[in-house]
């Protein structure tokens, strides 16, 4: 099995920044076969949506609503993916979930709350 542990959520004022981290651990074979790592979010009453994703090949993909404000990066040596969130807006308030795909399987983190409010 693979475990994803997220951290870095919290309360921030509009215009502020947060950095989320997601560390993968567990089955070594699956970790070495990671094909993508990324972030989704779910606001109350809304469906879970893609925020940003980085694959083993190609450039990262971002939701239009976060382009230019959020940056996803991955440290392969640490099996960790990060989401740097700048210029945060109240509409960014949601539970943020880390997702990893590996060897045909999909894993989710437990979620971390991000609240943007004055």
Annotate the secondary structure layout:
Elements: E1 2-7, E2 10-12, E3 18-26, H1 28-32, E4 34-42, E5 49-55, E6 61-62, E7 70-75, E8 80-85, E9 94-102, E10 105-108, E11 112-116
Parallel strand pairs: 2-11
Antiparallel strand pairs: 1-3, 3-8, 4-5, 4-9, 5-6, 7-8, 9-10, 9-11
Q: How would you describe the overall organization of this protein?
A:
This protein is mainly β and 118 residues long. The protein has one helix and eleven strands; from the N terminus they run E-E-E-H-E-E-E-E-E-E-E-E. Strands 2, 4, 5, 6, 9, 10 and 11 form a seven-stranded mixed beta sheet that branches. The model has no long low-confidence stretch (mean pLDDT 93).
Task: Describe the structure concisely for a colleague.
This protein is mainly β and 118 residues long.
Q: What gap, in angstroms, lies between the N and C termini?
A: 40 Å
Order of helices and strands: EEEHEEEEEEEE
Q: Which percent bin holds the helix content?
A: under 10%
* Arithmetic mean pLDDT: 93
Unreliable stretches (pLDDT < 50, length at least 5) are none
Biggest β-sheet description: 7 strands, mixed
Number of helices: 1
Q: Tell me the fraction of residues in β-strands, as a range.
A: over 45%
Radius of gyration: 14 Å
Morphology call: globular
Q: How many strand elements?
A: 11
Structure class: mainly beta
């Amino acid at each position: 099995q693979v475990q994803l542990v997220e951290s870095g959520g919290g309360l921030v004022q509009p215009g502020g920044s947060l950095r989320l981290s997601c560390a993968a651990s567990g089955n070594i074979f699956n970790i070495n076969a990671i094909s993508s790592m990324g972030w989704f979010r779910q606001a109350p009453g809304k469906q879970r949506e893609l925020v940003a994703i980085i694959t083993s090949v190609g450039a990262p993909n971002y939701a239009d609503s976060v382009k230019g404000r959020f940056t996803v990066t991955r440290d392969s040596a640490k099996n960790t993916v990060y989401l740097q969130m700048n210029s945060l807006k109240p509409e960014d308030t949601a539970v943020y979930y880390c997702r990893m795909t590996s060897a045909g399987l999909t894993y989710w983190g437990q979620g971390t709350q991000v609240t943007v409010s004055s």
